[in-house]
Structure formats: C-alpha cells, structure tokens
C-alpha cells in the first residue's frame, strides 16, 4: 500500500530562486469524490495514473502507475473535465527535497511548496521563502483547485 506524508506551504517570496526551467505538468481529474480522487498526469514524455485517498492528518494513501504516454494524452483529453497546469521546480533545503509548484491558467498567481516526510512527527527545517502552512486547508489541494480555480476565490 502506498502512503504519502506531506506538508504544504504558500511561498512567501521568490527567495527559492533563481528559477530554473522546471517541469511542466498537466494533470486532469477523472474523478473527485469524498473518498479521494483519480488523476492522470503528463510530465515530459511520461504519463501516470494516480489514485489518492482524502487526507487524514498529513498522511494519505497514494497509488501511482506509469501508463503509455499516448494513453495518458487520450485520457486527459477525453475523460478529464478538470485540468490543472503547473510548473514544478525542485530545491534541496535542510536535507529535504522541496517541490515548488507555480500554477498557470485559472490558478495563475498561486505558488505552493511541498515537502514529503517519513512520519507526521518528523521535524523539517523551513526555508525562509515559505510562508503560511496550508497542509490542512482543503482549498490548496490540487483536486480542489481543479474544480475551484484560484482566480475565482473571493479576496
């Protein structure tokens, strides 16, 4: 059984740079339910199909399968009513790999940083460029952003 333990933060400033090219990700949601979601992601020449449970604390079940790229494209185009595009950048800090997602399209202006942990109790040093922690705020889950884009949030 796959498990993901992750903390998520808003990015407070551009101190995580200098920006590299990052990797463009297009991910579409086949299903978003109260139990979890199913998505397809295209990145470079790779496609994956992922099933995630809804989060309890910082831990959730996650199952990811590599699928043929052409099939991933077909799934994204024909079965995914909700698609999110973002560029993912990676930075090392404090012995951890941080993933910084710069969102595009209807989620433009949103930048989040995530770090995966081995346990919920694991200490992680926070870089100066991270701001508010949003790990428990459902609005910052990508599946939520797919249905409720950032540009439509009330100020």
Span between N and C termini?
40 Å
| Strand elements, count | 9
- Sheet with most strands: 8 strands, antiparallel, barrel
Report low-confidence residues grouped into runs of 5 or more.
Answer: none
Q: What count of helical segments does DSSP give? A: 2
Strand content: over 45%
Strand order of the largest sheet: 1-5-4-3-2-6-7-8
Name the average pLDDT.
94
The ordered string of helix (H) and strand (E) elements is EEEEEHEEEEH
Radius of gyration: 15 Å
Q: What is the 3D shape?
A: globular
Percent of residues in helices: 10-25%
SS class? mainly beta
Which helices and strands, and how do they pair?
Layout: E1 3-11, E2 23-32, E3 36-43, E4 46-53, E5 59-67, H1 69-79, E6 82-93, E7 96-103, E8 111-116, E9 130-133, H2 142-147
Antiparallel strand pairs: 1-5, 1-8, 1-9, 2-3, 2-6, 3-4, 4-5, 6-7, 7-8
């Amino acid at each position: 059984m796959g498990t993901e333990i992750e903390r998520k933060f808003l990015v407070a400033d551009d101190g995580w740079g200098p920006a590299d090219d990052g990797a463009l990700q297009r991910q579409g949601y086949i299903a978003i339910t109260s139990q979890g979601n199913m998505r397809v992601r295209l990145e470079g020449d790779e496609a994956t199909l992922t099933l995630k449970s809804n989060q309890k604390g910082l831990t959730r079940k996650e199952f990811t399968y590599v699928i043929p790229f052409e099939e991933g494209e077909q799934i994204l185009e024909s079965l995914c009513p909700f698609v999110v595009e973002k560029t993912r950048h990676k930075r090392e800090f404090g012995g951890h790999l941080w993933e910084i997602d710069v969102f595009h399209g209807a989620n433009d202006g949103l930048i989040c940083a995530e770090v995966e942990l081995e346990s919920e109790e694991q200490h992680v040093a926070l870089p100066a460029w991270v701001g508010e922690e949003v790990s428990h705020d459902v609005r910052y889950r990508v599946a939520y952003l797919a249905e409720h884009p950032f540009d439509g949030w009330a100020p």
